Amino acid sequence: MANLAYFAVVSKMEMMSNPAVAAVFGDRLFGSWSWVIPVFVALSTFGGVNGVLFTSARLFATGAQEGHMPAFFSLFHIERQTPIPSLFFTCVMSLLMLTTSNVFDLINYFSQTLWLSVGVSVIGMLWLRRAKPNIPRPIKVNIMIPYVFLIAIGCLVIIPAITNPRDTAIGIAIMLSGIPVYFLCVKWKNKPESYHVFSGCILRFMQRLCSCVYVEAAEKMTS
Predict the structure, then answer these.
(1) Do the Cβ atoms of 171 and 117 come closer than 8 Å?
(2) Where are the domains of the chain?
(3) pTM score, two decimals?
């Protein structure tokens, strides 16, 4: 609805020439009250970051419980049940992303990677619905919802890939950078003793530093 409102008020040329479309929209529609637009955008951004902090850290923790990432990511605080090491990792990666001088490139890379990974995840859940129909599903939705969602994701991924293939290629390369981690932590079964010793040292260090305990998943997807 917000995009439709922009198209109704702001012309095509203004959209292409001005990176802050919402600011132009606010100036034209609200006049002296246009300052509320950047305030609400900032509040929306803060809410989005807050949600990402809650979810992304627990994604790392769940991946560690499944054996897809190092074990110390599955450490949770004793009292608050917060995945402290995963939050540290999220913080470090966020700070690394902020070192770039071009925020628009960062947004493009992140958007492409985000929607492509979300689309693959939805396809994976649809596949699991057929391949493993008896696994626990605490949340159930109508089958049409993920298919409609996939159509929307396809538009968000395919159209930018056509208009700006360079950013799409970089985003895919960022995603593929996780393959070595997968082979190191999951596929490589006969790891040397030095790997387990080093991993155990990091695990015990993080336990003491963050007052955390190792938590295993109640039920694992992988066998």
Answers:
(1) no
(2) 102-189
(3) 0.62
